[in-house]
Design brief:
Blueprint: E1 15-19, H1 29-42, E2 47-52, H2 69-85, E3 89-92, E4 108-112, E5 117-124, H3 126-136, E6 144-145, E7 157-163, E8 169-175, E9 181-183, E10 196-202, H4 203-206, E11 217-219, E12 228-230, E13 234-239
Parallel strand pairs: 1-2, 2-3
Antiparallel strand pairs: 4-5, 6-7, 7-8, 8-13, 9-12, 10-11, 10-13
Length: 252
């Protein structure tokens, strides 16, 4: 972020940058995003990351790296960190491309790379599809990012929390470690009678042919959110919104 080079900013309604190599846990990544957020706020304008992805995991032609679960972990970590820093919105680089240009970014498969023909059925690319669902399925328009703190610094664990306009709460936890992590969750100033639901995905679970994104566990109220096990290299959502796999995702 170089404000001295932005004499044209008065003509802009917002600011955005692209991130092609992931900024979570990268040298100066957090500082760069934080500087952009601070600059945008100083001009009373929003700041977006309008293309997000990690080419370090592979890219070009039909490279499968962008649709891998490692890519989903990277994207989830970037979004969680970016939300905490004040980024106003994110856009994944690609959703429905054929998979033969700049890598396999598609969330759903529409094209047979071997026969070079479109498929009769449109099927999810589970690792990418459900990895992105964990970021978007529970979040409504105008969600508010909540204050969050941890009593210990855990390398490889990034988390954020947000509240939808309808009052539903969500906590996103991304464990990049190769070991499980146990966490207790305390929610201040909340309706303690609200039930919570646990959703969690890993590379292995998303590869199951019959996988459905349903709650893995439920908790009677927030006081029961103890000893939550975050599996190695997993994405977890704790939410008061117990969506089943056949339910529509949140819009408003």
């Amino acid at each position: 972020c170089e404000p001295e080079k932005m004499s044209f900013e008065k003509y802009l309604g917002s600011f955005d940058i692209h991130s092609y190599f992931g900024f979570y846990n990268k040298n100066n990544g957090e500082k760069i995003i934080g500087d952009w957020v601070a600059f945008a706020k100083s001009k009373n304008k929003p700041f977006f990351i309008t293309e997000i992805g990690n080419m370090d995991l592979g890219w070009g032609t039909d490279n499968p790296g962008p649709k891998s679960f490692k890519a989903a972990l990277s994207n989830a970590s970037d979004v969680a960190l970016g939300m905490n820093l004040g980024v106003d919105g994110f856009n994944r680089w690609s959703f429905t491309n054929r998979g033969d240009m700049d890598g396999q970014w598609q969330l759903v498969n529409t094209y047979n790379l071997k026969t070079k023909k479109y498929t009769e059925q449109v099927l999810p690319e589970n690792e990418a599809y459900y990895g992105f669902a964990m970021l978007t399925r529970f979040m409504g328009k105008y969600a508010s990012v909540l204050s969050l703190k941890s009593d210990q610094k855990l390398d490889g664990l990034v988390m954020t929390a947000y509240k939808n306009m309808d009052g539903n709460l969500q906590i996103l936890l991304v464990n990049n470690n190769k070991e499980s992590v146990s966490v207790d969750v305390v929610i201040e100033n909340s309706n303690q009678k609200q039930a919570f639901y646990l959703y969690q995905i890993t590379e292995n679970t998303t590869k199951l042919p019959d996988f459905k994104l349903n709650p893995m566990a439920s908790f009677k109220n927030s006081e029961k959110l103890k000893n939550i096990q975050l599996l190695p290299e997993s994405i977890t959502v704790l939410t008061t919104n117990g969506l089943k796999s056949g339910d529509y995702g949140v819009i408003e």
